[in-house]
Predict the structure.
Amino acid sequence: MAITSYLYLPKKLNTFDNILRDYMFTIRGPIPDSKNIVIIDLDDKSLQEIGQWPWSRDIVSKLINNLTQKGAAIIGLDIVFAEEDRSSPHTLIKKVDFKTNNIIFPNYDNILAHTIANSPVILGYQFQFGDETYATNISPQIPAIFIEKNRNFEDTDYVLNAKGTLLNIPIIQNNAYSSGFFNNIPDASGTIRSVPLVIRYDLELYPSLALEVLRAALGINQVTVNYNEIGVSTVTLGEFKIPTDRHGRLLVNYRGAEKSFQYISAVDILNNNFNQKDIENKIILIGTTAAGLQDLRSTPYDSIFPGVEIHAM
């Protein structure tokens, strides 16, 4: 019966497996986090005080500067700056054709790029899997070596293969130490139960935002993707061996419902209204819980769950 169900009713078995796994999360209950990860929230409170998103890049620069000055270990951005800042003074002056008499007006993109170059920032970006016309064929530069161990190159490539990229504008992308993709792909039920740790693009492997933040925090320059006879088995970072499914996806061990990690409102960081001990030597993830910014996902715990916290898990 099990074999017949697997062959002819795979979706039914997957549904039952998901229900059982979700129920086991409920039975287990929440587990404490390590206190090493803090989420800086572009929340409704911040949007009400600063204004609608996207903010001008000089404000984002101040946010990152304040975190860096308070000793943040790594700052991961669950956002992408895919277009130039249209609110930048140098851009506005060009639009109105104002005679500047050689006055140099601030370029907010340059300001943010300079801040990123002098901060422990890991940028975020997206891979594209469809035929989107706005996708590019530019590959991000990652300062790490990816080794595929025991892979049979004549066999099926089980790792997700992307068709294009949606990167930050060059001046920002090129000034960062590194970057990681923040694609989260739900299963057939629309729920995120696993996340890809690596995605292949143009024959090369690239790390997720969470994996790249971890690699940078550990100071490791080599990532090993281990294969067995059915596909990917583990991803290794130094002494850390992370089990995955055959596609290189990590089954997320959710610690609990929303806000299992410490959250600090972004506007409090901008106003320096926070305790330095909450930031110093911590891994920082910048993302949003604001409903209007549409980075809310369905998970086994909640139907509305901040995407940035999935990276933290």
